[in-house]
């Protein structure tokens, strides 16, 4: 039932508010009193075409608002539910605003809606007809209302509608429960896959740091060998090696000790330095022999590091975080 109509700045109307009561309401007046303007305003709020001409002169916008009370079994409730509009109290507040450029905005219970939705709802709410037509007969979706009314099935329709809403609610709850169960299964399967992926790699604590050191050694193996051999040669090999020069200096100092015994302590120091250089030369020789030039091992280490980097990116950024992720997932 249409309970109230508010019209502001529409055509010749500055502001008018009309309250309607139950049953038949009649608006009378002589020609030109504005009866058709009120009907036009009602049509506007129900989605009919809007244009800037409907705005009262010297005003920037017009507004029409209608309050409609719905019966509990009214067919429009299903439309409102589909639109996501709350109408549990059975009251609809429909508002339409038109601005000077001809654009309009529509609201139902404070929620902005597209004009198409307003038109669909209006067809279920109000029947506007003139002298030569009856609009509701043109809409096939209203035919079932006529049949139910003619057959006196109001109470049955209400009970069936309530049962249908309960069924829809139960179906929605079941669908949500099934969706939640599926999400849980998907999550479990994902965790199982992730645990298996980490387990297949079987990373060890600090393995990436050890492999990085080994990778650097394998990458620069040839240069390290050459450097160690060169150092060993400078220190020990040939007549001009540091060890030979220290030996010559040691012999000169020993001869000087024969003339000045106080130099003996320095001769011992020089001998110790020569022994230390010889030991250092042996270290570099052993180092050169121990460095492995192994392209196959380098490729293996690089591949392992790539795998660990991929897993670290997925599971926390560090090897420790990845191991903790696996522990928690298990």
Describe the structure in brief:
The protein is an alpha+beta fold.
What does the secondary structure layout of this molecule look like, with pairings?
Elements (H helix, E strand, L loop, with lengths): L1 E9 L2 E7 L15 H11 L15 E9 L6 H8 L7 E9 L4 E5 L2 E3 L1 H11 L17 H9 L2 H48 L5 H13 L1 H16 L5 H18 L4 H27 L4 H20 L4 H11 L1
Antiparallel strand pairs: 1-2, 1-3, 3-4, 4-5, 5-6
Helix pairs in contact: 2-3, 5-11, 6-10, 7-9, 8-9
Any overview of this molecule?
The protein is an alpha+beta fold. The chain folds into three domains: 2-139, P-loop containing nucleotide triphosphate hydrolases (Rossmann fold); 153-201; 207-329, no CATH class. The protein is 58% helix and 13% strand. The chain contains eleven helices and six strands. The protein has helices spanning 35-45, 76-83, 115-125, 143-151, 154-201, 207-219, 221-236, 242-259, 264-290, 295-314, 319-329, and strands spanning 2-10, 13-19, 61-69, 91-99, 104-108, 111-113. The protein has a six-stranded antiparallel beta sheet with strand order 2-1-3-4-5-6, covered by helices on one side. Strand 1 and strand 2 (13-19) form a beta hairpin. It is elongated. It starts with a strand and ends with a helix. 12% of the residues are buried. The mean pLDDT is 85.
Write a concise keyword list for the protein shown above.
58% helix, Rossmann fold, alpha+beta
Instruction: Describe the sheet with the most strands.
Output: 6 strands, antiparallel
Q: Supply the number of structural domains.
A: 3
Name the strands of the widest sheet in spatial order. 2-1-3-4-5-6
Number of strands: 6
**Count of helical segments?**
11
Distance between the termini: 63 Å
CATH fold group of the largest domain: Rossmann fold
What is the strand content? 5-15%
For the record, the CATH architecture of the largest domain stands as 3-Layer(aba) Sandwich
As residue ranges, the low-confidence spans are none
User: Tell me, what's the shape?
Assistant: elongated
CATH 4th-level superfamily of the largest domain: P-loop containing nucleotide triphosphate hydrolases
């Amino acid at each position: 039932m249409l309970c109230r109509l508010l019209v502001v700045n529409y055509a010749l109307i500055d502001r008018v508010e009309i309250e309607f009561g139950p049953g038949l309401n009649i608006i009378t007046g002589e020609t030109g009193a504005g009866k058709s303007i009120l009907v036009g305003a009602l049509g506007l709020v129900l989605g009919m075409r809007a244009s800037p001409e409907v705005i009262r002169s010297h005003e920037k916008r017009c507004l029409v608002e209608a309050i409609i009370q719905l019966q509990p079994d009214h067919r429009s409730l299903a439309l409102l539910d589909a639109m996501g509009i709350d109408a549990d109290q059975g009251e609809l507040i429909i508002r339409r605003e038109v601005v000077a450029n001809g654009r309009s905005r529509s609201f139902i219970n404070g929620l902005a809606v597209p004009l198409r939705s307003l038109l669909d709802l209006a067809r279920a709410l109000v029947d506007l007809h003139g002298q030569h037509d009856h609009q509701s007969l043109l809409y096939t979706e209203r035919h079932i209302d006529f049949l139910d009314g003619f057959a006196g099935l109001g109470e049955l329709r209400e009970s069936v509608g309530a049962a249908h809403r309960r069924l829809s609610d139960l179906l929605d709850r079941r669908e949500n429960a099934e969706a939640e169960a599926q999400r849980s299964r998907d999550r479990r399967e994902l965790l199982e896959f992730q645990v298996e992926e980490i387990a297949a790699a079987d990373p060890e604590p600090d393995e990436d740091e050890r492999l990085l050191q080994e990778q650097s050694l394998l990458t620069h193996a040839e240069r390290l060998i050459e450097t160690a051999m060169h150092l060993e040669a400078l220190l020990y090999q040939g007549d001009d090696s540091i060890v030979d020069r220290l030996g010559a200096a040691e012999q000169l100092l020993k001869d000087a000790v024969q003339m000045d015994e106080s130099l003996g302590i320095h001769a011992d120091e020089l001998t110790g330095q020569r022994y230390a250089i010889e030991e250092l030369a042996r270290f570099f020789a052993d180092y050169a022999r121990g460095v492995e030039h192994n392209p196959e091992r380098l490729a293996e280490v690089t591949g392992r590091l790539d795998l660990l980097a991929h897993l670290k990116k997925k599971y926390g950024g560090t090897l420790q975080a990845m191991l903790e992720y696996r522990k928690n997932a298990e």
